[in-house]
Amino acid sequence: MRTLLTVLLSWLMPPSGRHRAENHPTSPARRHARHTPDPSRSPLPTPRSPYTVHEVIRADGFPVVRPYLLRHEEAVAAA
After folding, report:
1. pLDDT digits (tens, 9 = 90+) for 38-68
2. From which domain of life does this come (predicted)?
Protein backbone atom coordinates (compact mmCIF):
# COMPACT_ATOMS: atom_id res chain seq x y z
CA MET A 1 0.00 0.00 0.00
CA ARG A 2 2.84 2.36 0.79
CA THR A 3 4.42 1.97 -2.67
CA LEU A 4 1.07 2.57 -4.35
CA LEU A 5 0.64 5.73 -2.31
CA THR A 6 4.19 6.83 -3.17
CA VAL A 7 3.58 6.31 -6.89
CA LEU A 8 0.29 8.19 -6.82
CA LEU A 9 1.79 11.10 -4.91
CA SER A 10 4.79 11.23 -7.23
CA TRP A 11 2.40 11.67 -10.16
CA LEU A 12 0.50 14.44 -8.41
CA MET A 13 3.37 16.35 -6.83
CA PRO A 14 5.78 18.56 -8.77
CA PRO A 15 9.05 16.85 -9.77
CA SER A 16 11.89 17.02 -7.28
CA GLY A 17 14.69 17.20 -9.84
CA ARG A 18 16.32 13.95 -8.71
CA HIS A 19 15.66 12.25 -12.04
CA ARG A 20 17.86 14.79 -13.81
CA ALA A 21 20.66 14.59 -11.29
CA GLU A 22 20.82 10.78 -11.38
CA ASN A 23 20.83 10.31 -15.16
CA HIS A 24 23.30 12.93 -16.36
CA PRO A 25 26.82 13.49 -15.10
CA THR A 26 27.70 17.07 -14.41
CA SER A 27 29.94 18.64 -17.00
CA PRO A 28 30.84 22.25 -17.64
CA ALA A 29 28.79 24.03 -20.25
CA ARG A 30 30.38 24.49 -23.63
CA ARG A 31 31.28 27.99 -24.60
CA HIS A 32 30.41 29.09 -28.07
CA ALA A 33 33.10 30.67 -30.20
CA ARG A 34 32.66 34.38 -30.72
CA HIS A 35 31.65 35.49 -34.16
CA THR A 36 34.41 37.49 -35.80
CA PRO A 37 33.23 39.93 -38.47
CA ASP A 38 34.41 39.52 -42.03
CA PRO A 39 37.12 42.17 -42.64
CA SER A 40 36.23 42.42 -46.34
CA ARG A 41 32.81 43.85 -45.50
CA SER A 42 32.65 47.57 -44.90
CA PRO A 43 31.59 48.62 -41.40
CA LEU A 44 28.37 50.46 -40.79
CA PRO A 45 28.52 54.25 -40.77
CA THR A 46 28.67 55.89 -37.38
CA PRO A 47 25.19 56.82 -36.14
CA ARG A 48 24.29 60.49 -36.02
CA SER A 49 21.79 62.15 -33.78
CA PRO A 50 19.27 64.30 -35.66
CA TYR A 51 19.54 66.90 -32.91
CA THR A 52 23.16 67.70 -33.63
CA VAL A 53 22.62 68.64 -37.25
CA HIS A 54 23.35 72.35 -37.55
CA GLU A 55 21.86 72.93 -40.96
CA VAL A 56 19.52 75.86 -41.49
CA ILE A 57 16.12 74.84 -42.80
CA ARG A 58 14.84 77.37 -45.29
CA ALA A 59 11.06 77.85 -45.14
CA ASP A 60 10.79 80.51 -47.84
CA GLY A 61 7.91 79.68 -50.14
CA PHE A 62 6.51 76.97 -47.89
CA PRO A 63 3.37 77.49 -45.82
CA VAL A 64 4.34 77.32 -42.17
CA VAL A 65 0.73 77.12 -40.91
CA ARG A 66 -1.86 74.79 -42.40
CA PRO A 67 -4.58 76.52 -44.44
CA TYR A 68 -7.45 75.06 -42.38
CA LEU A 69 -6.01 76.67 -39.26
CA LEU A 70 -5.92 80.07 -40.96
CA ARG A 71 -9.53 79.67 -42.13
CA HIS A 72 -10.61 78.69 -38.61
CA GLU A 73 -8.89 81.70 -37.05
CA GLU A 74 -10.43 84.01 -39.67
CA ALA A 75 -13.88 82.54 -38.95
CA VAL A 76 -13.42 83.03 -35.20
CA ALA A 77 -12.22 86.61 -35.69
CA ALA A 78 -15.16 87.42 -38.00
CA ALA A 79 -17.73 85.98 -35.59
Report:
1. 767 777 788 877 776 777 777 777 777 888 9
2. Bacteria
Residue 68 amino acid letter:
Y
User: What's the whole-model pTM score?
Assistant: 0.24
Burial of 39-77, coded b for 16+ CB within 10 Å and e otherwise, reads eeeeeeeeeeeeeeeeeeeeeeeeeeeeeeeeeeeeeee
Q: What is the DSSP letter of 61?
A: T
